[in-house]
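Protocol check, entry for the methods section draft. Step 1: assemble the input record (protein sequence plus ligand SMILES). Step 2: submit for complex structure prediction. Step 3: store the C-alpha coordinates unaltered in the notebook. Ligand used here: zinc ion. Step 1 record:
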Amino acid sequence: QQQKDVFIRKSELLSSERINESQLQALLKKGILEKHDKTLSRLKVYEPEKEISEIVLSPEQETAMQSIKNQFHKNNTVLFHGVTGSGKTEIYMKLIQEVLEEGKQVLYLLPEIALTTQIIHRLRTYFGNKVGVYHSRFSEFERVEIWQHVSDKTSDSYRVIIGARSALFLPFNNLGLIIVDEEHDMSYKQFEPSPHYQARDSAIVLAKLHEAKTLLGSATPAIETYNNTARGKYGLVSLYQRYGGVELPNIKIVDLRKENRKKQNYTLYSKPLLESITQALAKKEQIILFQNRRGFSVHLECGLCNYIPTCKHCDVTLTYHKKNNELRCHYCGYKEAVPQKCDLCQNPHMEMRGIGTEKVEEELQLFFPQAKIARLDYDSTRSKSAYQQIISNFENRKIDILVGTQMVTKGLDFDNVSTVGILNADNMLYYPDFRSFERAFQMLSQVSGRAGRKNKQGQVLIQTFNPHHPIFQLVICNDYQTLFHKSMIERKQFTYPPFCRLIKITLKHKKQETLDKLAKMLAVEFKKVFLGSVLGPEYPPIMKIKNLYQKDIILKINLSKSLVSSKNIIKKIISLPVFKSIQIHLDVDPY
Ligand SMILES: [Zn+2]
Ligand SMILES: [Zn+2]
Ligand SMILES: [Zn+2]
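Step 3, stored output:
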Protein backbone atom coordinates (compact mmCIF):
# COMPACT_ATOMS: atom_id res chain seq x y z
CA GLN A 1 0.00 0.00 0.00
CA GLN A 2 1.25 3.44 -0.92
CA GLN A 3 1.99 5.85 1.85
CA LYS A 4 1.71 9.57 1.59
CA ASP A 5 4.96 11.51 2.02
CA VAL A 6 5.07 13.93 4.89
CA PHE A 7 7.62 16.74 4.76
CA ILE A 8 9.17 18.45 7.73
CA ARG A 9 11.89 21.07 7.69
CA LYS A 10 15.24 19.94 9.02
CA SER A 11 15.54 23.03 11.18
CA GLU A 12 12.12 22.34 12.70
CA LEU A 13 13.03 18.75 13.50
CA LEU A 14 16.28 19.72 15.20
CA SER A 15 14.72 22.55 17.16
CA SER A 16 12.31 20.09 18.81
CA GLU A 17 15.29 18.91 20.94
CA ARG A 18 14.11 15.31 20.85
CA ILE A 19 16.65 14.58 18.16
CA ASN A 20 20.14 15.85 17.45
CA GLU A 21 22.23 16.09 14.29
CA SER A 22 24.00 12.71 14.66
CA GLN A 23 20.77 10.85 15.47
CA LEU A 24 19.24 12.44 12.40
CA GLN A 25 22.13 11.25 10.25
CA ALA A 26 21.66 7.72 11.62
CA LEU A 27 17.94 7.73 10.76
CA LEU A 28 18.75 8.93 7.26
CA LYS A 29 21.30 6.13 6.84
CA LYS A 30 18.79 3.49 7.87
CA GLY A 31 16.30 4.87 5.38
CA ILE A 32 13.72 5.69 8.03
CA LEU A 33 13.93 9.31 6.98
CA GLU A 34 14.65 10.61 3.50
CA LYS A 35 16.25 13.89 2.58
CA HIS A 36 14.73 16.06 -0.15
CA ASP A 37 15.61 19.57 -1.27
CA LYS A 38 12.63 21.85 -1.70
CA THR A 39 12.38 25.48 -2.63
CA LEU A 40 10.14 27.45 -0.30
CA SER A 41 8.83 30.87 -1.20
CA ARG A 42 9.12 33.88 1.03
CA LEU A 43 6.21 35.44 -0.80
CA LYS A 44 2.62 34.90 0.16
CA VAL A 45 0.27 33.15 -2.21
CA TYR A 46 -3.01 34.85 -3.04
CA GLU A 47 -5.88 32.87 -4.49
CA PRO A 48 -8.47 34.83 -6.41
CA GLU A 49 -11.80 34.91 -4.62
CA LYS A 50 -14.14 32.16 -5.73
CA GLU A 51 -17.09 34.26 -6.69
CA ILE A 52 -15.90 37.51 -8.10
CA SER A 53 -18.46 39.56 -9.89
CA GLU A 54 -17.70 40.76 -13.41
CA ILE A 55 -16.42 44.32 -13.52
CA VAL A 56 -19.41 46.32 -14.73
CA LEU A 57 -18.60 49.62 -16.37
CA SER A 58 -20.97 52.55 -16.52
CA PRO A 59 -21.88 53.72 -20.05
CA GLU A 60 -19.36 56.60 -19.69
CA GLN A 61 -16.61 54.24 -18.52
CA GLU A 62 -17.43 51.83 -21.34
CA THR A 63 -17.14 54.63 -23.92
CA ALA A 64 -13.84 55.76 -22.41
CA MET A 65 -12.46 52.22 -22.51
CA GLN A 66 -13.45 51.76 -26.14
CA SER A 67 -11.81 55.09 -27.02
CA ILE A 68 -8.61 54.03 -25.27
CA LYS A 69 -8.54 50.83 -27.31
CA ASN A 70 -9.24 52.74 -30.53
CA GLN A 71 -6.50 55.24 -29.71
CA PHE A 72 -4.06 52.39 -29.18
CA HIS A 73 -4.52 51.40 -32.83
CA LYS A 74 -3.02 54.74 -33.84
CA ASN A 75 -0.75 55.58 -30.88
CA ASN A 76 1.65 53.69 -28.66
CA THR A 77 1.01 56.11 -25.80
CA VAL A 78 -2.38 57.38 -24.69
CA LEU A 79 -3.23 59.90 -21.98
CA PHE A 80 -6.40 59.12 -20.06
CA HIS A 81 -7.57 62.40 -18.55
CA GLY A 82 -10.31 61.41 -16.11
CA VAL A 83 -11.54 63.68 -13.32
CA THR A 84 -11.16 62.51 -9.70
CA GLY A 85 -13.78 59.89 -8.89
CA SER A 86 -14.42 59.00 -12.55
CA GLY A 87 -13.60 55.35 -11.85
CA LYS A 88 -10.29 54.98 -13.65
CA THR A 89 -9.37 51.83 -11.72
CA GLU A 90 -12.27 49.76 -13.12
CA ILE A 91 -11.25 50.74 -16.64
CA TYR A 92 -7.65 49.77 -15.91
CA MET A 93 -8.82 46.40 -14.60
CA LYS A 94 -10.84 45.68 -17.74
CA LEU A 95 -7.86 46.57 -19.91
CA ILE A 96 -5.55 44.42 -17.77
CA GLN A 97 -7.91 41.49 -18.15
CA GLU A 98 -7.85 41.78 -21.93
CA VAL A 99 -4.06 42.00 -22.08
CA LEU A 100 -3.78 38.93 -19.82
CA GLU A 101 -6.10 37.01 -22.12
CA GLU A 102 -3.62 37.69 -24.93
CA GLY A 103 -0.99 36.02 -22.74
CA LYS A 104 0.95 39.22 -22.08
CA GLN A 105 2.18 40.95 -18.94
CA VAL A 106 1.06 44.25 -17.46
CA LEU A 107 3.09 46.72 -15.44
CA TYR A 108 0.99 49.02 -13.27
CA LEU A 109 3.07 51.92 -11.93
CA LEU A 110 1.99 54.02 -8.97
CA PRO A 111 3.79 56.97 -7.42
CA GLU A 112 3.54 55.81 -3.81
CA ILE A 113 3.33 52.09 -3.22
CA ALA A 114 3.02 52.18 0.57
CA LEU A 115 -0.31 53.94 0.24
CA THR A 116 -1.84 51.73 -2.38
CA THR A 117 -2.98 48.76 -0.35
CA GLN A 118 -6.48 49.53 -1.59
CA ILE A 119 -5.58 48.99 -5.23
CA ILE A 120 -3.37 45.98 -4.52
CA HIS A 121 -6.23 44.40 -2.61
CA ARG A 122 -8.68 45.00 -5.46
CA LEU A 123 -6.36 43.53 -8.07
CA ARG A 124 -5.56 40.49 -5.94
CA THR A 125 -9.21 39.82 -5.27
CA TYR A 126 -9.67 39.75 -9.00
CA PHE A 127 -6.49 38.29 -10.44
CA GLY A 128 -5.21 36.31 -7.43
CA ASN A 129 -1.59 35.22 -7.41
CA LYS A 130 -1.01 36.48 -10.94
CA VAL A 131 -0.45 39.82 -9.21
CA GLY A 132 3.02 40.67 -7.92
CA VAL A 133 4.01 43.75 -5.98
CA TYR A 134 7.44 45.31 -6.25
CA HIS A 135 9.10 48.24 -4.52
CA SER A 136 12.39 49.01 -2.88
CA ARG A 137 11.16 48.25 0.65
CA PHE A 138 11.30 44.49 0.07
CA SER A 139 14.31 42.56 1.33
CA GLU A 140 16.94 41.49 -1.15
CA PHE A 141 15.81 37.84 -0.96
CA GLU A 142 12.22 38.75 -1.62
CA ARG A 143 13.28 40.86 -4.57
CA VAL A 144 15.24 37.98 -6.09
CA GLU A 145 12.12 35.83 -5.93
CA ILE A 146 9.98 38.51 -7.50
CA TRP A 147 12.56 38.80 -10.29
CA GLN A 148 12.23 35.09 -10.95
CA HIS A 149 8.44 35.24 -10.91
CA VAL A 150 8.50 38.05 -13.46
CA SER A 151 10.97 36.48 -15.87
CA ASP A 152 9.55 32.93 -15.57
CA LYS A 153 7.33 31.64 -18.29
CA THR A 154 5.74 29.03 -16.03
CA SER A 155 2.13 28.97 -14.93
CA ASP A 156 2.77 30.55 -11.53
CA SER A 157 4.69 33.52 -12.90
CA TYR A 158 3.48 37.05 -12.29
CA ARG A 159 1.38 38.49 -15.08
CA VAL A 160 0.53 41.81 -13.42
CA ILE A 161 3.17 43.77 -11.53
CA ILE A 162 2.12 46.67 -9.34
CA GLY A 163 5.12 48.73 -8.50
CA ALA A 164 6.79 51.98 -7.71
CA ARG A 165 9.20 53.48 -10.23
CA SER A 166 11.95 50.89 -9.66
CA ALA A 167 9.64 48.14 -11.01
CA LEU A 168 10.62 49.41 -14.46
CA PHE A 169 13.84 47.45 -14.18
CA LEU A 170 12.25 44.01 -13.70
CA PRO A 171 12.98 41.39 -16.38
CA PHE A 172 9.60 41.26 -18.12
CA ASN A 173 9.30 38.44 -20.61
CA ASN A 174 6.26 39.51 -22.59
CA LEU A 175 5.04 42.96 -21.69
CA GLY A 176 1.83 44.10 -23.36
CA LEU A 177 0.75 47.18 -21.41
CA ILE A 178 2.20 49.70 -18.97
CA ILE A 179 -0.19 51.83 -16.92
CA VAL A 180 1.34 54.92 -15.33
CA ASP A 181 -1.28 56.08 -12.85
CA GLU A 182 -1.15 59.66 -11.52
CA GLU A 183 1.38 60.35 -14.25
CA HIS A 184 1.78 63.99 -13.12
CA ASP A 185 3.16 62.96 -9.73
CA MET A 186 6.57 64.33 -8.86
CA SER A 187 7.71 61.15 -7.15
CA TYR A 188 8.10 59.49 -10.55
CA LYS A 189 11.28 61.51 -10.83
CA GLN A 190 14.23 60.00 -9.02
CA PHE A 191 17.07 62.40 -8.36
CA GLU A 192 18.66 61.32 -5.10
CA PRO A 193 20.52 58.97 -5.17
CA SER A 194 21.55 58.31 -8.78
CA PRO A 195 20.41 57.23 -11.31
CA HIS A 196 18.36 60.28 -12.20
CA TYR A 197 15.36 59.25 -14.22
CA GLN A 198 11.74 60.11 -14.83
CA ALA A 199 9.82 56.83 -14.52
CA ARG A 200 6.89 58.00 -16.65
CA ASP A 201 9.15 58.85 -19.57
CA SER A 202 11.26 55.72 -19.06
CA ALA A 203 8.08 53.62 -19.08
CA ILE A 204 7.31 54.84 -22.59
CA VAL A 205 10.80 53.81 -23.71
CA LEU A 206 10.44 50.40 -22.03
CA ALA A 207 7.08 49.85 -23.73
CA LYS A 208 8.67 50.64 -27.07
CA LEU A 209 11.34 47.98 -26.50
CA HIS A 210 8.60 45.42 -25.88
CA GLU A 211 6.31 46.78 -28.59
CA ALA A 212 3.82 47.33 -25.79
CA LYS A 213 1.36 50.18 -25.17
CA THR A 214 1.54 52.83 -22.46
CA LEU A 215 -1.50 54.33 -20.75
CA LEU A 216 -0.87 57.50 -18.74
CA GLY A 217 -3.65 58.30 -16.28
CA SER A 218 -4.35 61.51 -14.39
CA ALA A 219 -7.05 63.95 -13.35
CA THR A 220 -4.48 66.73 -13.58
CA PRO A 221 -1.97 65.80 -16.30
CA ALA A 222 1.50 67.31 -16.47
CA ILE A 223 1.67 70.23 -18.92
CA GLU A 224 4.35 68.41 -20.93
CA THR A 225 2.15 65.33 -21.26
CA TYR A 226 -0.92 67.26 -22.31
CA ASN A 227 1.18 69.15 -24.82
CA ASN A 228 2.24 65.82 -26.32
CA THR A 229 -1.42 65.01 -26.95
CA ALA A 230 -1.99 68.44 -28.51
CA ARG A 231 0.97 67.80 -30.84
CA GLY A 232 -0.45 64.41 -31.79
CA LYS A 233 2.43 62.53 -30.24
CA TYR A 234 0.13 60.78 -27.72
CA GLY A 235 -3.53 59.88 -28.03
CA LEU A 236 -6.02 61.52 -25.65
CA VAL A 237 -9.15 60.18 -23.98
CA SER A 238 -11.07 62.41 -21.58
CA LEU A 239 -13.69 61.51 -19.00
CA TYR A 240 -15.20 64.52 -17.29
CA GLN A 241 -17.99 62.73 -15.45
CA ARG A 242 -17.66 61.16 -12.05
CA TYR A 243 -18.78 57.59 -11.56
CA GLY A 244 -22.43 57.25 -10.57
CA GLY A 245 -23.19 60.83 -11.61
CA VAL A 246 -21.70 62.26 -8.39
CA GLU A 247 -21.02 65.95 -8.78
CA LEU A 248 -17.55 67.42 -8.44
CA PRO A 249 -17.09 68.97 -4.99
CA ASN A 250 -18.34 72.40 -4.12
CA ILE A 251 -15.23 74.48 -3.42
CA LYS A 252 -15.27 77.58 -1.21
CA ILE A 253 -12.45 80.04 -0.67
CA VAL A 254 -12.10 81.31 2.91
CA ASP A 255 -10.39 84.69 3.29
CA LEU A 256 -8.04 84.37 6.25
CA ARG A 257 -7.42 88.14 6.27
CA LYS A 258 -11.01 88.77 7.33
CA GLU A 259 -10.94 85.92 9.80
CA ASN A 260 -7.83 87.22 11.51
CA ARG A 261 -8.82 90.87 11.58
CA LYS A 262 -11.48 90.07 14.16
CA LYS A 263 -9.17 88.17 16.48
CA GLN A 264 -6.04 88.82 18.47
CA ASN A 265 -4.18 85.66 17.59
CA TYR A 266 -3.51 84.01 14.28
CA THR A 267 -6.08 81.28 13.88
CA LEU A 268 -5.54 78.01 12.05
CA TYR A 269 -9.25 77.29 11.81
CA SER A 270 -11.64 79.79 10.28
CA LYS A 271 -15.25 79.98 11.36
CA PRO A 272 -16.61 78.54 8.09
CA LEU A 273 -14.23 75.57 8.33
CA LEU A 274 -15.19 74.89 11.95
CA GLU A 275 -18.86 75.02 11.00
CA SER A 276 -18.40 72.58 8.14
CA ILE A 277 -16.52 70.16 10.38
CA THR A 278 -19.25 70.41 13.02
CA GLN A 279 -21.94 69.65 10.46
CA ALA A 280 -20.04 66.72 8.99
CA LEU A 281 -19.38 65.22 12.43
CA ALA A 282 -23.06 65.56 13.32
CA LYS A 283 -23.95 63.53 10.21
CA LYS A 284 -21.26 60.93 11.03
CA GLU A 285 -19.35 61.86 7.90
CA GLN A 286 -15.58 61.96 7.79
CA ILE A 287 -13.22 64.87 7.25
CA ILE A 288 -9.77 65.25 5.71
CA LEU A 289 -7.64 68.26 6.60
CA PHE A 290 -4.71 68.98 4.36
CA GLN A 291 -1.69 70.85 5.52
CA ASN A 292 1.23 71.51 3.23
CA ARG A 293 4.43 70.40 4.89
CA ARG A 294 6.18 73.61 3.97
CA GLY A 295 5.26 76.34 6.41
CA PHE A 296 4.36 74.06 9.29
CA SER A 297 7.43 73.65 11.41
CA VAL A 298 8.81 75.04 14.64
CA HIS A 299 12.31 76.30 15.29
CA LEU A 300 14.02 78.00 18.22
CA GLU A 301 15.09 81.61 18.28
CA CYS A 302 16.87 83.71 20.90
CA GLY A 303 14.57 86.47 22.13
CA LEU A 304 17.52 88.83 22.67
CA CYS A 305 19.96 88.44 19.77
CA ASN A 306 17.69 86.56 17.30
CA TYR A 307 20.18 83.71 16.99
CA ILE A 308 18.59 80.62 15.38
CA PRO A 309 20.17 77.16 15.88
CA THR A 310 21.20 75.69 12.52
CA CYS A 311 22.65 72.36 11.42
CA LYS A 312 26.40 71.88 11.84
CA HIS A 313 26.62 70.24 8.40
CA CYS A 314 23.97 72.03 6.35
CA ASP A 315 22.79 75.56 5.76
CA VAL A 316 19.45 74.68 7.34
CA THR A 317 17.47 75.80 10.40
CA LEU A 318 16.99 72.94 12.84
CA THR A 319 13.39 71.87 13.33
CA TYR A 320 11.97 71.36 16.80
CA HIS A 321 10.42 67.93 17.42
CA LYS A 322 8.15 67.89 20.42
CA LYS A 323 7.95 64.12 20.71
CA ASN A 324 11.63 63.64 21.62
CA ASN A 325 12.21 67.23 22.70
CA GLU A 326 15.07 67.61 20.24
CA LEU A 327 16.21 69.65 17.27
CA ARG A 328 16.60 67.85 13.96
CA CYS A 329 18.00 68.55 10.50
CA HIS A 330 15.68 67.30 7.77
CA TYR A 331 18.51 67.14 5.23
CA CYS A 332 21.17 65.05 6.95
CA GLY A 333 19.38 63.64 9.99
CA TYR A 334 21.59 65.48 12.50
CA LYS A 335 19.99 65.70 15.97
CA GLU A 336 20.71 67.58 19.16
CA ALA A 337 19.00 68.15 22.49
CA VAL A 338 17.10 71.41 22.90
CA PRO A 339 19.74 73.93 24.11
CA GLN A 340 19.24 75.47 27.56
CA LYS A 341 20.67 78.83 26.53
CA CYS A 342 21.57 80.84 23.44
CA ASP A 343 24.88 79.81 21.85
CA LEU A 344 25.74 83.42 21.07
CA CYS A 345 24.64 85.59 24.01
CA GLN A 346 24.00 82.93 26.69
CA ASN A 347 20.45 84.21 27.18
CA PRO A 348 18.58 81.35 28.91
CA HIS A 349 15.26 82.07 27.18
CA MET A 350 15.12 80.48 23.76
CA GLU A 351 11.69 80.96 22.16
CA MET A 352 9.63 78.74 19.86
CA ARG A 353 8.72 80.19 16.48
CA GLY A 354 6.30 78.91 13.85
CA ILE A 355 3.32 76.58 13.89
CA GLY A 356 4.12 72.92 14.26
CA THR A 357 2.18 70.00 12.94
CA GLU A 358 1.39 68.94 16.52
CA LYS A 359 -0.22 72.33 17.11
CA VAL A 360 -2.61 71.69 14.23
CA GLU A 361 -3.88 68.57 15.96
CA GLU A 362 -3.90 69.97 19.49
CA GLU A 363 -5.97 72.97 18.52
CA LEU A 364 -8.37 70.80 16.56
CA GLN A 365 -8.85 68.53 19.56
CA LEU A 366 -9.74 71.57 21.68
CA PHE A 367 -12.49 72.51 19.25
CA PHE A 368 -13.75 68.93 18.91
CA PRO A 369 -12.96 67.09 22.13
CA GLN A 370 -15.19 64.12 21.19
CA ALA A 371 -13.77 63.57 17.72
CA LYS A 372 -11.20 60.91 16.96
CA ILE A 373 -8.31 62.57 15.16
CA ALA A 374 -5.31 60.97 13.47
CA ARG A 375 -2.35 62.27 11.53
CA LEU A 376 -0.83 60.85 8.34
CA ASP A 377 2.54 62.17 7.24
CA TYR A 378 6.08 61.04 6.57
CA ASP A 379 7.36 62.32 9.90
CA SER A 380 4.87 60.64 12.22
CA THR A 381 4.51 57.36 10.35
CA ARG A 382 7.84 55.84 9.47
CA SER A 383 6.84 52.24 9.02
CA LYS A 384 4.73 50.75 6.27
CA SER A 385 2.40 49.01 8.71
CA ALA A 386 1.82 52.29 10.53
CA TYR A 387 0.46 53.90 7.34
CA GLN A 388 -1.71 50.92 6.63
CA GLN A 389 -3.09 50.92 10.15
CA ILE A 390 -4.13 54.56 9.93
CA ILE A 391 -5.61 54.12 6.47
CA SER A 392 -7.62 51.06 7.42
CA ASN A 393 -8.81 52.72 10.65
CA PHE A 394 -10.02 55.64 8.58
CA GLU A 395 -11.69 53.29 6.09
CA ASN A 396 -13.45 51.50 8.93
CA ARG A 397 -14.58 54.83 10.33
CA LYS A 398 -12.64 54.48 13.57
CA ILE A 399 -11.19 57.91 12.84
CA ASP A 400 -13.35 60.98 12.27
CA ILE A 401 -10.79 63.52 11.13
CA LEU A 402 -7.61 62.69 9.25
CA VAL A 403 -4.98 65.42 9.23
CA GLY A 404 -2.21 64.96 6.74
CA THR A 405 0.39 66.29 4.37
CA GLN A 406 0.91 65.41 0.68
CA MET A 407 0.34 61.76 1.55
CA VAL A 408 -3.43 62.20 1.86
CA THR A 409 -3.61 63.33 -1.77
CA LYS A 410 -2.15 60.16 -3.21
CA GLY A 411 -4.27 57.35 -4.53
CA LEU A 412 -6.63 57.07 -1.59
CA ASP A 413 -10.38 56.64 -1.99
CA PHE A 414 -12.64 56.90 1.02
CA ASP A 415 -16.35 56.75 0.41
CA ASN A 416 -17.56 58.48 3.56
CA VAL A 417 -15.51 61.69 3.32
CA SER A 418 -17.83 64.63 2.81
CA THR A 419 -15.59 67.51 3.81
CA VAL A 420 -12.05 68.50 2.93
CA GLY A 421 -10.26 71.48 4.40
CA ILE A 422 -7.02 72.99 3.11
CA LEU A 423 -5.53 74.80 6.08
CA ASN A 424 -3.25 77.17 4.23
CA ALA A 425 -3.01 77.22 0.45
CA ASP A 426 -0.55 80.11 0.36
CA ASN A 427 2.68 78.21 0.79
CA MET A 428 1.90 76.32 -2.44
CA LEU A 429 1.35 79.47 -4.48
CA TYR A 430 4.68 81.20 -4.32
CA TYR A 431 7.44 78.78 -5.04
CA PRO A 432 10.42 79.81 -7.16
CA ASP A 433 9.88 77.25 -9.91
CA PHE A 434 8.37 77.45 -13.38
CA ARG A 435 6.04 74.59 -12.45
CA SER A 436 4.63 76.23 -9.29
CA PHE A 437 1.31 77.24 -10.89
CA GLU A 438 0.79 73.78 -12.36
CA ARG A 439 1.73 72.10 -9.09
CA ALA A 440 -0.58 74.26 -7.00
CA PHE A 441 -3.43 73.36 -9.35
CA GLN A 442 -2.61 69.66 -9.18
CA MET A 443 -2.31 69.62 -5.42
CA LEU A 444 -5.47 71.64 -4.75
CA SER A 445 -7.51 69.60 -7.26
CA GLN A 446 -6.22 66.27 -5.97
CA VAL A 447 -6.96 67.14 -2.35
CA SER A 448 -10.39 68.48 -3.28
CA GLY A 449 -11.08 65.30 -5.21
CA ARG A 450 -11.09 63.31 -1.97
CA ALA A 451 -14.44 64.89 -1.03
CA GLY A 452 -17.86 63.48 -1.81
CA ARG A 453 -17.41 60.14 -3.47
CA LYS A 454 -20.65 58.28 -2.95
CA ASN A 455 -24.09 59.59 -3.85
CA LYS A 456 -23.45 63.10 -2.66
CA GLN A 457 -21.53 66.21 -3.48
CA GLY A 458 -18.57 66.97 -1.26
CA GLN A 459 -17.53 70.22 0.35
CA VAL A 460 -14.08 71.74 0.12
CA LEU A 461 -12.85 74.80 2.03
CA ILE A 462 -9.60 76.42 1.01
CA GLN A 463 -8.16 78.88 3.54
CA THR A 464 -5.90 81.59 2.14
CA PHE A 465 -4.60 85.11 2.65
CA ASN A 466 -4.71 85.61 -1.15
CA PRO A 467 -8.33 84.87 -2.07
CA HIS A 468 -8.00 86.63 -5.43
CA HIS A 469 -5.11 84.54 -6.71
CA PRO A 470 -6.12 83.34 -10.21
CA ILE A 471 -5.41 79.69 -9.38
CA PHE A 472 -8.51 79.40 -7.17
CA GLN A 473 -10.97 80.21 -9.95
CA LEU A 474 -9.40 77.44 -12.07
CA VAL A 475 -9.61 74.94 -9.22
CA ILE A 476 -13.23 75.86 -8.42
CA CYS A 477 -14.29 75.34 -12.05
CA ASN A 478 -11.94 72.39 -12.52
CA ASP A 479 -10.71 74.28 -15.57
CA TYR A 480 -7.70 72.32 -16.74
CA GLN A 481 -7.86 73.77 -20.27
CA THR A 482 -7.24 77.32 -19.07
CA LEU A 483 -4.44 76.15 -16.80
CA PHE A 484 -2.85 74.45 -19.80
CA HIS A 485 -3.13 77.43 -22.15
CA LYS A 486 -1.94 79.94 -19.55
CA SER A 487 1.03 77.78 -18.63
CA MET A 488 1.98 77.27 -22.27
CA ILE A 489 1.95 81.03 -22.99
CA GLU A 490 4.12 81.70 -19.96
CA ARG A 491 6.59 78.94 -20.70
CA LYS A 492 6.94 79.99 -24.31
CA GLN A 493 7.60 83.56 -23.27
CA PHE A 494 10.35 82.61 -20.82
CA THR A 495 11.57 79.50 -22.69
CA TYR A 496 10.82 76.68 -20.30
CA PRO A 497 9.78 73.09 -21.04
CA PRO A 498 8.08 71.98 -23.23
CA PHE A 499 9.75 74.73 -25.31
CA CYS A 500 13.25 73.56 -24.40
CA ARG A 501 15.01 70.81 -22.47
CA LEU A 502 16.55 71.73 -19.13
CA ILE A 503 19.75 70.28 -17.77
CA LYS A 504 20.73 71.15 -14.24
CA ILE A 505 24.39 70.88 -13.34
CA THR A 506 25.10 70.88 -9.62
CA LEU A 507 28.64 71.42 -8.39
CA LYS A 508 29.69 70.47 -4.88
CA HIS A 509 32.81 71.18 -2.87
CA LYS A 510 33.92 71.43 0.76
CA LYS A 511 35.48 74.85 0.23
CA GLN A 512 33.29 77.71 -0.80
CA GLU A 513 36.09 79.64 -2.58
CA THR A 514 37.06 76.63 -4.70
CA LEU A 515 33.42 76.06 -5.59
CA ASP A 516 32.91 79.70 -6.58
CA LYS A 517 36.02 79.76 -8.74
CA LEU A 518 35.38 76.49 -10.57
CA ALA A 519 31.64 77.10 -11.03
CA LYS A 520 32.42 80.41 -12.68
CA MET A 521 34.98 78.76 -14.98
CA LEU A 522 32.55 76.01 -15.91
CA ALA A 523 29.83 78.53 -16.76
CA VAL A 524 32.30 80.39 -18.99
CA GLU A 525 33.07 77.15 -20.86
CA PHE A 526 29.36 76.43 -21.33
CA LYS A 527 28.65 79.96 -22.51
CA LYS A 528 31.21 79.55 -25.30
CA VAL A 529 28.99 76.82 -26.75
CA PHE A 530 25.45 77.40 -25.50
CA LEU A 531 25.69 81.21 -25.50
CA GLY A 532 22.69 82.85 -23.82
CA SER A 533 21.08 79.57 -22.75
CA VAL A 534 23.27 79.24 -19.67
CA LEU A 535 21.82 80.36 -16.31
CA GLY A 536 23.95 80.72 -13.21
CA PRO A 537 26.08 79.65 -11.48
CA GLU A 538 23.85 80.36 -8.51
CA TYR A 539 23.46 79.08 -4.98
CA PRO A 540 20.31 77.00 -4.53
CA PRO A 541 18.00 78.00 -1.63
CA ILE A 542 20.05 75.70 0.60
CA MET A 543 23.70 76.33 -0.16
CA LYS A 544 25.34 73.75 2.08
CA ILE A 545 24.22 70.16 2.64
CA LYS A 546 26.23 67.49 4.47
CA ASN A 547 29.31 69.73 4.66
CA LEU A 548 29.36 70.38 0.91
CA TYR A 549 28.67 73.79 -0.59
CA GLN A 550 26.73 73.68 -3.82
CA LYS A 551 26.00 75.80 -6.86
CA ASP A 552 23.72 75.18 -9.83
CA ILE A 553 24.14 75.95 -13.51
CA ILE A 554 21.11 75.48 -15.73
CA LEU A 555 21.34 74.84 -19.46
CA LYS A 556 18.34 75.42 -21.69
CA ILE A 557 18.77 73.16 -24.68
CA ASN A 558 17.02 74.36 -27.80
CA LEU A 559 14.67 71.70 -29.17
CA SER A 560 16.12 72.06 -32.66
CA LYS A 561 19.59 71.08 -31.38
CA SER A 562 20.64 67.46 -31.47
CA LEU A 563 20.46 66.01 -27.98
CA VAL A 564 23.30 63.61 -28.64
CA SER A 565 25.71 66.29 -29.74
CA SER A 566 24.71 68.52 -26.78
CA LYS A 567 25.38 65.59 -24.48
CA ASN A 568 28.81 65.00 -25.99
CA ILE A 569 29.75 68.66 -25.67
CA ILE A 570 28.70 68.72 -22.00
CA LYS A 571 30.62 65.51 -21.32
CA LYS A 572 33.74 66.93 -22.91
CA ILE A 573 33.56 70.17 -20.93
CA ILE A 574 32.99 68.60 -17.52
CA SER A 575 35.83 66.16 -18.03
CA LEU A 576 38.39 68.94 -18.54
CA PRO A 577 41.27 68.29 -16.07
CA VAL A 578 40.67 71.55 -14.21
CA PHE A 579 37.28 70.27 -12.96
CA LYS A 580 38.71 67.00 -11.59
CA SER A 581 38.67 68.22 -7.98
CA ILE A 582 34.97 69.08 -7.88
CA GLN A 583 31.83 66.91 -7.72
CA ILE A 584 29.58 67.45 -10.73
CA HIS A 585 26.01 66.08 -10.85
CA LEU A 586 23.90 66.21 -13.99
CA ASP A 587 20.13 66.16 -13.97
CA VAL A 588 18.30 66.11 -17.30
CA ASP A 589 14.67 67.36 -17.12
CA PRO A 590 14.98 68.38 -13.45
CA TYR A 591 11.82 68.50 -11.33
ZN1 LIG B 1 21.07 85.16 21.95
ZN1 LIG C 1 22.10 68.81 8.32
ZN1 LIG D 1 10.73 66.49 11.18
